[in-house]
Structures are given as C-alpha cells and as structure tokens.
Amino acid sequence: MEDKIRKNLEVQLSEVETLQSMYNPGELRVEDLNVLADVNAFVEGRAPDLPAYLDLTVNLLVDQHKFELCINLSHEYPDVEPDLFVRNHKLNKQQHAALNKDLGDYVAGVSRGEPCIFSAISWLQDNAQNYVVSEEVEERIEKDEALVRYWIYSHHIYSKSKRREIVDLAHKMNITGFCMPGKPGIICVEGTTSDCNEWWQTIKAMNWKRIFCKISEQCQDSGDGFLKFRTFEERVFQNSSIKCTHMNMGELYKFLDEHDCGYIFKDIFGVEVKPGPL
C-alpha cells in the first residue's frame, strides 16, 4: 500500500512540476509549500510519515471573467478523481452549481490512473463562459426571518480552499456556528432560514465525496436563546499540531456541551456519551 501511495505521489509531483512550467505564480498557487516539501521527502524516502494532501489553486481569465479552480489531491489520485471545484463570485447559485456539476461529470469520464488536472483546466477554459449571463438579473427574495440550525455531515473535509470558503461565506452572510475539518467533517450553521439555505446550496454545489444535512433544527418560539454560537469559526480538536485527519471526539463533545449542544452528539454519531473521556 505504501509503495502504491509513493507511486501516486510521484505522479502528482510530476504533474505539479509540469503545471508550474506552464503557469506563472499568479496563475498557479500551491497552498502550502511545506506540504509540497513533505511530499518530496516521502517520495524520496527521507520521511516515514504520510504527508498531508496537496492543495492547488489555478486562477484563470476566461473572456475577461475570473475563475478560480481549487484542487485537492488525495493520496489515491490519479487512481481516483481529484477533489475540485470552481469559484466565480459573479455566478448565481444555479450557475455555480451547474458549472461544478458539469466539470465533475467531465472529470469522472477521464480514464483513471492518468493525470487529469490539465484536462480539467482546458475544459474550464473552453466552457466556463457558457455559465456566465450577459446581464446581471437581480432577484428580490423576501427574507424568511425564522431561525434554523443545520448539522451537516461530510465524509471528509481536508481541502484548505473549501475550508476557507466555508468560513468566508458564513462570515459574509452573518451565519454563526463552526466547522470541524478532518474525517468525518462536521459543520454547524445557524441563522435565518434564507441565509442558511443560501449558504448550504452554495457549499453543497462544491465537489464532495459525500455531504448531507443530517439534522435540521427550527426555532419554535420567539428566537430568544436559540442561537448557540456567537460567531462562525473553524475548530480543530486535536491533542497535537499534526496534520488534520481524525479528530478527538471527546474534545468535540466537550465543545458542544459548552454551547448547550451536547444532546446532538448521539444524533450525529449514534453513540451515547458516558462520563469521562470518550
């Protein structure tokens, strides 16, 4: 298994090197150069521990429209599809979702075992403009001020670009809660129904292995005391500074309990919490 991972990472390094020769630093960005160094060290046998996943961002200008392609490469790539999604803040929710779905469908049709990032970039350059409307249409939606709280479960949340987008969009929409990265990934968002729905539709449109809203809570009264969090932040529950993988469930429960949400732990994980460390 380790030999196979090393072979996959060799392919990833070669692909990154090729992309770096084709794009300047303003167009192609390795999100964490330390991770790139760790991958090199592992491939060369200088480091025994598996490195974190590589995160790349490609900035493209297509017909004067700026698109950002965010890429996360697992240890299994290129034997599995890359985790990628496109951002363009001028696209509405429907356009954004359609673009990411169609790009995902295209990548899914590419033969596995071969690098496909350049193919994805080429597809985006050829097709991205088709998802941009020529005139902005402003939709007026009456705000539903009822309060809700969504508990969202993801198979994993590793990509730094996705993690940044989750937090930035929540701040932009005045949503509170938290995001726990790793495997599994847990997100709690709370706020008005319209704001939470818009945030969820945008985040759900990204390319995920599996993500769904597991529990939805609605305010049944005037709203006093319903909101449990004062802001939105990423929370990592680990005993050390090692790479973000599996979280400390005991620390997560303690955090939930401190915010009067300890009851939700059993509903999410199906485990009854007992006194003492988990």
Tell me what you see in this structure.
The protein has 278 residues and is of the alpha+beta class. It folds into 2 domains: 2-131, Ubiquitin Conjugating Enzyme (Roll), CATH 3.10.110.10; 147-269, Alpha-Beta Plaits. It is built from 8 helices and 9 strands. It has helices spanning 2-22, 33-43, 93-108, 117-127, 160-172, 193-204, 249-258, 264-269; strands at 28-30, 54-62, 65-73, 83-87, 147-154, 176-180, 185-192, 211-218, 232-234. It has a 5-stranded mixed β-sheet with strand order 8-5-7-6-9. It is globular and about 60 Å long. Residues 134-144 have low confidence and may be disordered. Residues 14-131 form the RWD domain. Pfam families: Prp3_C (PF06544), RWD (PF05773). This is RWD domain-containing protein.
Strand order of the largest sheet: 8-5-7-6-9
CATH architectural arrangement of the largest domain: Roll
Number of helices: 8
Using the CA coordinates, give the radius of gyration. Answer: 20 Å
Taking pLDDT < 50 over at least 5 consecutive residues as the criterion, the unreliable ranges are: 134-144
- The SS-based structural class is alpha+beta
Average pLDDT: 87
Following the backbone from N to C, one meets helices and strands in this order, namely HEHEEEHHEHEEHEEHH
β content, as a range?
15-25%
CATH superfamily caption of the largest domain = Ubiquitin Conjugating Enzyme
Distance between the termini: 30 Å
**Biggest beta sheet summary:** 5 strands, mixed
What global shape is seen? Answer: globular
CATH-defined fold name of the largest domain: Ubiquitin Conjugating Enzyme
The number of domains is 2
For the record, the CATH class of the largest domain is Alpha Beta
The residue fraction in helices comes out at 25-40%
Number of strands: 9
InterPro entries: Phi-like (IPR017359), Prp3_C (IPR010541), RWD_dom (IPR006575), RWDD2A-B_C (IPR059181), UBQ-conjugating_enzyme/RWD (IPR016135)
Pfam family, one: Prp3_C
Protein name: RWD domain-containing protein
Organism: Tenebrio molitor
